[in-house]
Amino acid sequence: MRSGDFPVAEHAHGHMIKLPVWHREQDLELAGQYVRAAVEISENHKELL
């Protein structure tokens, strides 16, 4: 497999965000922080560009 063999997949991979997986009760606050940050960025993306 060489670079360029799968241009759509390569583009998607280059533009995605990987988030951790939370599975413990004590992770809920951290997960909430990620959600709040994502909402903040989404709501203010034009100002951030």
3D architecture notes:
The protein contains three helices and no strands. The protein has 49 residues and is mainly alpha-helical. The radius of gyration is 16 Å and the shape is flat. The mean pLDDT is 93.
Mean pLDDT across every amino acid position: 93
Structural class: mainly alpha
Q: Please write the string of helix (H) and strand (E) elements.
A: HHH
Distance between the termini: 35 Å
- Residue runs with pLDDT of under 50 for 5 or more positions: none
Gyration radius (Cα, Å) is 16 Å
Determine the strand fraction and express it as a percent band.
under 5%
**Level of helix content?**
55-70%
How is the main sheet built?
none
What is the global morphology?
A: flat
- Give the strand tally: 0
Number of helices: 3
- Quaternary arrangement of the chains shown? single chain
Compile the SSE list and pairings:
Elements: H1 7-14, H2 28-43, H3 45-48
Record keyword descriptors for this entry.
mainly alpha; 49 residues
Short description:
The chain is an all-alpha fold and 49 residues long. It has three helices and no strands.
